[in-house]
Amino acid sequence: MASFSLPHIHDNPDGGWGPSSSNIPEQFKFKDIPYAPYSKSDKLGRFADWNDNLDGRQTAVGLPTTQNVRGGGAGRNRRDGAQAFGSGTASAFAYFHVEDEASFSLVDNKPAPPRRGGAFTRGRGSARGTGNYAARGNQRGGRGGYNNNRGGAQRGGRRGWRDWEKNNRTRESSVAISPQWRMLEEIEFHRLAKLRLEVDEPENVDTYGKVFAYEKSYDRITTKTERPLQLVDRIKYNTTTSDDPVIQELAAKNTATVYTTDAILSVLMCAPRSVYPWDIVILREGNNLYLDKRDGGPFDTVTVNENASDPPQDPTPPNPNNPNEKAAPEVPSINSATSLSLEATYINQNFGFQSVIENGTPAPVDFAHPNPFYGPEETEPLASCGYRYRVFDLGITEDEDIKICVRTEVDAYIAGQGNPREGQGLVTIRALNEFDPRAQGAGGAPDWRSKLDSQRGAVVATEMKNNSCKLAKWTVQSVLAGADLMKIGYISRGNPRDNTRHVILSTASMRPTDFAAQLNVSLANGWGIVRTVTDLCMKMPEGKYVLIKDPNKSVIRLYAVPLTAFTTEDEEGEAFEEDPESTA
What digits encode the pLDDT tens for the residues 477-486? Predict the structure, then answer.
């Protein structure tokens, strides 16, 4: 017969319930389990009760419980206002949402309660499920005003048709990245935004070109006295840094360490604001750095509504592997991102050509040297443009000798405000364009013809939001050139469906430093970015590099590329195909 023996009982010498801690083996001790305070009056229930709210917080994402909505009570098993024991402490078992679930919310599909008298039910904090207010995502709680619902969109960015596709749209890189390229550094925008470097006033090295006087009558244009935008046939050069003969002469004299243009430098200084992709080619020769652009790259065109919540998009090319997809239309939409960029570039050039006095008084002003890019075989007339080569000192200490030579541009001068040859009264001219307020990508811009004269502040605020990067680059270019004023024209289409005819509705005048403060543009931060990129490149050996802004992320990357990259022979990618046996 089998024997029976009682199990060993661990007695607690302290007189409490359960075994003593001294009698429990180490492997059975729950040392890493957090302790949650409780009360003996609490009832044991389910492991996860999604309808109960014991600590006064919502248990479901975006969906308030019945107890919270009606009285704000702690739970259905307690009286209203009674506090649960231990509810004031942080729950160690609380569930925290990860980053991917931060945008998840539950949607209540139940029909809305019947209307009782007024338009809203007061005092219950309930959201209406029908009408325009529900479509706007607004919610009226108690006696307060409107609050944004979690499931709705923010004001000014209301949700619309096929909204789920907007986050899935991807952009292509501004340059094709070869597998043979070697990535050297990756910097996020939030790291760039923390950089800072104070730079003193620059040294003016030399001046080239000729500028005309600005036509002051354009400052008096209103929406009722609009002027048509004319097509003016003039030549204006946008030569890259290494092809500039003046910079080549200055580099031979060791004038500076880094050489670039104001258009390239402004993109780098305003990099944290950029959304569209761009790339800067960096060439290191000896102890010198040259920041160049590619022909036909993003530096030759002007963006439109780059910083809007829903910027203009190019049509998605058809998938060649899917025979069911229709071929792309031969004529792109006039409101696509590429078409608007070309239109804005055309408007900027012609507005600058048109708003100056070429013949008559005041007479044009010649700088110290003629235009360095205008050859003797050229027959077309030159546009009003002056080049000022200026050197900025980027050294932190007195022992450092890091200087950057920048070719800056000015477009005109204001008669009677000093000597333009000495850098007084110089002006930069730019233009903002309106295409169609009802089109996709308009960014909620108001109608300029009805709002520009009466509510100019609203128009300017919208443009500062939708074109933050573009306006910041223009302002930085004006500050680098030492211009006293910026002239910004407001130009709209004569017909929203015709992108070939435009009218000038108004012209604004502002000082670059004051406008930079309104845009919250920090030149010290921009110089810090320039110095950081300079230090990264100076640590590398001689060669060619490219700094690329990721098309879909807020990050820039530095790649090492072959010396034959971005040349005519490299268009087909032949320069990247090397035979390892022949180079061994």
Answer: 999 999 999 9
